Amino acid sequence: MSDRLFIFDTTLRDGEQVPGCQLNTVEKIQVAKQLELLGVDVIEAGFPVSSPGDFNSVIEISKAVTWPAICALTRAVQRDIDVAAEALQFAKRKRIHTGIGTSDSHIKYKFNSNREEIIERAVAAVKYARKYVDDVEFYAEDAGRTDNEYLARVVEAVIKAGATVVNIPDTTGYCLPSEYGAKIKYLMEHVDGIHNAILSTHCHNDLGMATANTMAGVQNGARQVEVTVNGIGERAGNTSLEEVAMIIKCHNDIDIETNINTQKIYPTSRMVSSLMNMPVQPNKAIVGRNAFAHSSGIHQDGVLKNVQTYEIINPRDVGIDDNSIVLTARSGRAALKNRLSALGVNPTQDKLNEIYDEFLKLADKKKDINDDDILVLAGADRSQHHRIKLEYLQVTSGVGVRSVASLGLSISGEKFEAAASGNGPVDAAIKALKKIINRHMTLKEFTIQAISKGSDDMGKVHMQVEYDNHVYYGFGANTDIIAASVEAYIDCINKFKM
Ligand code: KIV
Ligand code: ZN
Question: For residue range 15-34, what is the model confidence (pLDDT) as tens digits?
Answer without folding.
Answer: 998 877 889 898 999 999 99
